[in-house]
Amino acid sequence: MFSFLVRRFLQAGLVLLIVGFVAFSMFNFVGDPIDNMLGQEASQADIERLRSVLGLDQPFVVQYWKFLINALDGNFGISYRQGRPVAEIIAERAPATLELAAVSGLFAITGGIVLGIFTAIRREGFLANFIMTVSLIGVSLPTFLIGILLIYLFSVELDWLPSFGRGEVVDIGGWSTGFLTASGLKALILPSITLGLFQMTLIMRLVRSEMLEVLRQDYIRFARARGLSERAINFRHALKNTLVPVITVTGLQLGSIIAFAIITETVFQWPGVGLLFINAVQFVDIPVMAAYLILISVMFVAINLLVDVLYVAIDPRLRS
Amino acid sequence: MKKSIVAIAMALMATQSVNAETFRWAGKTDPQTMDPHAVNSAPVIGFLNNVYEGLMRRDRDMRIEGALATRWEPIGAKGWRFFLREGVKFQDGSDFTADDVVFSYERATKPQSDVSSWFATVTDVKKVDDFTVDFYTSAPNPIFPDTITNFMIMDQGWSEANNAATPAKETENYATRNANGTGAFKVVERQPDLKTVLEPHTGWWGEVEHNITRAEYTPIQNPATAVAALLSGEVDMVNPVPTQDVSRLSNSADVKVLEGIEARVIMFGFANQAETLKYTADAGKPNPFRDPRVRKAVNHAINVDAIVQTIMRGSAQPVSQLVSSTMRGYSTSLAARPEYNLDKARSLLAEAGYADGFSFGLKCPNNRYINDEAVCQAAVGMLAQIGLKAELEAMPVSNYWSELRANNFDMYLLGWSPGSFDAEHPIRFLVTTPNPEKKLGSWNFGAFSNARVDELLPQIQSEIDDTKRQAMLDESAKILQDEAGYVPMYVQALLWGARKKVELVQRADNFFILRWVTVK
Amino acid sequence: MTNTTSSKPLSSWQQAWQSDLAWKFRHSPIAVVSLVITVLLVLSAVFAPLVAPYNPFDPGSLNLMNGFTAPLTPNAFTGDEFLLGTDDQGRDVFSTILYGMRISLFVGFAAVTLGLLIGVTLGLIAGYFGGWIDAVIMRIADVQLTFPSILVAMLIFGVAKGFTPVEYRDEVAIWVLVIAIGLSDWVQFARVVRGATLVEVNKEYVQAAKLIGRSAWSIIFGHILRNVLSPVLVIATISLALAIIAEATLSFLGAGAPPTQPSLGTLIRVGQGFLFSGEWWILLFPSVTLLSLALAVNLLGDWLRDALNPKLK
Fold it and tell me: In degrees rounded to 5, what are phi and psi of residue B128?
């Protein structure tokens, strides 16, 4: 078990190193930050001065090495656009994304499970088939379009919900939360639906097929033969056995929720790390882009690692 | 736990205390910094005009007037003397004196400053007494007061006490997120990219015309989201409004659109000097754009009226030269655009030996100017009518300038807004032969070059007599038109959307000045 | 498989018609309708030059004054009429959709093919050989998974732009999209195929083949491949829909097909700017087309999944 863990940790470290290299090398092609940092009247001398101050005149390998050394130290450099430490900016923006991701995730999981069970139990029913078909719309339109249509309907036409931002936020020990004010909660609704719709469809279909599979198993047939009520069969036995794969998939989907938040955050001007990333791409703010990608990678690798470890803990056969 | 409950309670109270007089507005980008000398970009300078003030400022109609200076006069041909306003207080309560002006000049001319080009001709700045300052220039500079309206004065004591005596660009200092100006509004809260909150400066020297008690600025990137926010009343003002939404907003019961003409001229430029074409199947063949007749043919083939009418929906004005008619030094004698005439264009091409046309690469930004990509696309169609097959590559502005600087174009789109609101400005940056040492022609990507224009520029810069100066500006503009070094198309419109209850002034430089805002 | 066992040889069409799958297909109205819609859309895209009244990719044929013409309403300046109206450039929306769908479908098919080839090959190898080969391949898959698909696509887009010589950039834009989207979804093919291969490897027929000395490659491609294909088919179908949507999403982030040769996604990105201004047709028709295409393909995939799953009979 111990050597397994060590091996997995080393592998995870290697993965991060590669990700860092790939991320960093790619940014050399996104554009030139200097143009964004200087006004239109800047002279060639200004351009060269800034280039050397930022170290952009050095060979690529040197730049990557410096970046790596600093990153290992937890120092992701200074944002070109804001002139502040990247770590500080990301810490400031993370709560917005995490809250959005949490609410979308919750929406996706509860919605997905409830609808999944329903469509599995009423497999042949009209309503279930209708839900199955309609749910596909959620994965058949690009996210940005869904977001804009929701804004058009609920903000402009009906005037029920805000079209952008987080509303009023409350700062608790450096964590800004939108959960504690009415406007903050209202502001969460449309972005969460936009972001969660895709995952909800996914989870719903997964729950449905797992459920159908389980309902076919022998022990369910026995349960039925023993005269247990349908409700008890569906919820106490079938659902319980459905949940394991659902939890695994959901865990892995959490990362893509945060990644796809880029689009939702742009549409709703949601001040999270996704919007920060898009701003950074437009400005060629290399330190912010690199830090964001590494952060996402760490998260994914951590989730993967956790899943692996859990599997080993559950299934002793894998320990050898 | 107790602490957090208090925090929540306070936050809830804060929510309730936000009253109707809070004015909210949104723009496309966040001002990068609160430091008036660190970044010379319109979002920064425009925003900070509400917080800081210069010696000079512009009124509603862009005429210059005294702000922190009450009078100014030339010191012969040696420079300019400014007499300062007395009794002015910074937002932290300290007094404004000549020392602050000298300090701000020194700060703004440091290598880290992004505004030092404003003082290219200044050799020295001397304090005469507490309320008199002299600016010495290397040559007579008749328009110097016009060029320093955005030169904002910082408090020497505050800057030094907070270690902000040097502008910070690649890092941050105290002045990046805090401000202490003499302007009508002070920064009370600054959250980069999220919101910036201003409140009136109670000790301001001027007469208060606004009725704002609190103003909140939020950047909203997606234009559709910004329009939605305005329509639903979440913001009171949006700049800019997409051209296509003008009519919808104007027809709405609660919203109005303010339309004006911006200073920015949109034009096509060419690889004037390159030996060969760089793009398409014709890459490597001799570059036809070296021939003025070919450039003129392009000029006759672009139907500017059609672009203005459809893509810009009437919200733009055709233009014949590199500045719009409201700028100083505009050549009235050259106001007519070359007519849209395909036959003429074709015969010019035939004359130049390209009767069968040719193909080439057209570069275009897709997020810099209003509808930039659509305009380029339309131009591709129009040029195809005379046999010129343009291959369009549109890219985000973050890649665009480095692409142009690397000479990766045969023809390209450019917008230019003269920072000094004077016709000399585009000549200096776009028309004179590029010369990095003299800081000339730094945006003349195609390296247009004309000896006479190069000769005229220094004379224009130092000519005090307005008539003579105008004659030289006219001559340069005429040369440029005859040579078709650029194809100026139209002046962009300023399109602001606002709730009907808001009264505001739209100035031609696209600066939103809060002290002219009243909310009913 | 060989035909020698059947006494009366059937043509392959008859075989297909009588197969289990075909029977299920004929008895599922949703599957039939989805297939008809998909085939119709694909055909009209493939034959766009014959079906479309105009060629929107030929800039010389455009008249800017035709811009913003409403559907079936004569243009105020030119008097021209268009079935689904025109966009801001005066392009016929109907023609643009047909040509745009060509690009979307091309990107979709090519990307899925690429992802499938890489994923299936690596999955088979990993599953068959196991050991360190398996570990290396699955670690690479982890790295790939670490980057969410749209980020991968954006980055490949950026790198390709940097490496491509300037004069070829326009031609490669579409291929870059293919590679970007294709590379971001090979992992799921690899994972599923690896899993299925692991099961197959332990079956008797593989062991037998190994015993009689068949080479690893002939076992993999001759036997195992055939038996792991049904999940691949399901994933491929659903990936096709996802790839088309991914292209649209990339377009929103500024990394999509060029505007002079717009895909459906680019059309929607441009069209969303006209949502408030009253020119609904510029957004609506491309969106509906994309929706029908993706929905039909998704429903087909759904049906395939159920049909190929023997447990769900």
Answer: -90, -55
